[in-house]
Specification:
The protein is an alpha/beta fold and about 400 residues long. The protein has 15 helices and ten strands. The protein has three domains: about 120 residues, HprK N-terminal domain-like (Udp-n-acetylmuramoylalanyl-d-glutamate--2,6- Diaminopimelate Ligase, Chain: A, domain 1, 3-Layer(aba) Sandwich); about 150 residues, 2-Layer Sandwich (Alpha-Beta Plaits); about 90 residues, PucR C-terminal helix-turn-helix domain (Arc Repressor Mutant, subunit A, Orthogonal Bundle). The strands form two sheets. It has a five-stranded mixed β-sheet with strand order 1-5-4-3-2. A five-stranded mixed β-sheet has the order 7-8-6-9-10, with helices on both faces. Strand 4, helix 3 and strand 5 form a beta-alpha-beta unit. The two termini are about 30 Å apart.
Length: about 400
């Protein structure tokens, strides 16, 4: 099921049957949140993303590149498309606009005929509201599977079948997070709370709609303002590498839609019975948290690849782990805290670089002499040489525990 109305859907509406695509065909999958009628003096300041702009009078903007600037501004504001109700008379102007639309992957359309703006608003609004109601029912169904009491399994299965989903197969949960979403919202000018809320709503629709495009038969719901939970069905002979690639492509699509956005995903284990997916959900959340807090370079992290962290999540008393960390790294942590230092980070980087001094200095962007000074300080504080075999084992293990404890503190 498609999770949102797209620009391509508007081409199928009877009222807009005479609408013609001029350029930006690759952008027809953009999400439409609402129609927006613009006159001569309108402003894009109030747009939040996903608006389909109907421009009443393009003639006033035809000179001095006004339409070209408007088209570029619409694309940068993540609108769904620009529809010219009174397009320029000049064929060369149309051609230039179409070329720019193609470059921006932003739909540019023209609509002929004497159609009242109120009719356009009503026609598109009805379609959007209908889709919103269907999406709400779908969210309720997915929420019941992942978080509910499972009081009426048969009813949920019938509802899933109505939407075209098969709950009899194995499933796997994936959780994605836009980790710098607030920064992107503020840098895009969404300062007020209501503006950010509308932008979050648009982001959720884009993310869930993209999930449906990239991952076959996925069920997805938003979580908070910057996360989404995906319930992925698995075929009998499922290809794990292909599924990972689909999730990665999905995340990359979102990052391409919102310039500067950073997206991470965590994937839990496979559940043979969909009603037992809570374990997979918890694992996906843990994998995501580890990826975010350890600055993992990968976009997608699987729970099964967490190594020792999988075991540590089941440890009953985290204070015991913290005591061990303090016994090994305490002086370094105290020094870093007081002096705003990076001794623990230096040690971690050294071990991750397989005890290669030159590579460590390069990764830390410091001179080798500065690195040797740090090592001298480390030896002075803990009484051990970092490259000693026994010290390496205990210190590196302590660093891993320290990272894990920090992750637990973020949960």
């Amino acid at each position: 099921m498609r999770m949102a109305i797209q620009t391509s859907d508007l081409l199928q509406l009877p009222l807009l049957k005479n609408m013609k695509l001029l350029g930006g065909k690759k952008g027809l999958s953009r999400v439409v949140t609402w129609p927006y009628i613009g006159g001569e003096d309108f402003s894009l300041e109030w747009t939040r993303g996903g608006e389909m702009l109907f421009l009443m009078n393009a003639g006033g903007r035809e000179e001095s590149g006004g339409l070209r600037k408007l088209l570029a501004d619409c694309a940068s504001r993540n609108l769904a498309g620009l529809i010219l109700l009174h397009p320029p008379d000049s064929s060369s102007a149309k051609t230039e606009l179409a070329q720019l639309a193609d470059e921006l992957d932003f739909p540019l359309l023209e609509l002929s005929g004497n159609i009242k703006p109120t009719e356009i608003m009503r026609e598109i609004g009805d379609v959007i509201v209908k889709q919103q109601n269907e999406r709400r029912h779908l969210y309720d169904m997915i929420y019941e599977i992942l978080y509910g009491a499972h009081a009426n399994v048969a009813a949920v299965e019938r509802q899933a079948a109505f939407f075209g989903y098969d709950l009899s197969s194995a499933h796997q949960v994936c959780v994605i997070r836009a980790i710098n979403f607030e920064h992107i919202a503020l840098s895009s000018g969404y300062v007020e709370d209501d503006a950010r809320a509308e932008f979050k709503s648009y982001f959720n629709q884009v993310a869930l709609n993209a999930a449906a495009q990239y991952i076959q038969n996925v069920m997805a719901i938003p979580k908070g303002g910057n996360e989404a939970v995906l319930l992925i069905p698995l075929k009998q002979n499922h290809d794990e590498k292909m599924r990972m690639k689909q999730v990665e492509n999905f995340c990359e699509h979102i990052m391409n839609m919102f310039i500067g956005l950073k997206v991470k995903a965590g994937i839990g284990g496979v559940s043979e019975v969909v009603w037992e997916c809570r374990k997979s959900l918890k694992e996906a959340e843990q994998a995501l948290q580890i990826a975010v807090n350890t600055e993992n370079a990968r976009i997608v992290t699987k729970f099964e690849d967490l190594g020792m962290f999988r075991v540590l999540y089941k440890f009953p008393d985290i204070s015991v782990l913290d005591e061990y960390v303090q016994s090994q790294l305490g002086p370094l942590l105290q020094y870093d805290h007081v002096n705003n230092g990076e001794l623990v980070k230096t040690l971690q980087t050294y071990y991750e670089c397989k005890l290669n001094l030159n590579q460590t200095a390069k990764e830390l962007f410091i001179h080798r002499n500065s690195l040797m000074y740090r090592f001298k300080k480390i030896e002075e504080l803990i009484g051990k040489k970092p490259d000693d075999t026994a010290a390496y084992q205990s210190l590196f293990f302590s660093i891993l525990l320290y990272r894990f404890i920090n992750v637990q503190g973020e949960r």
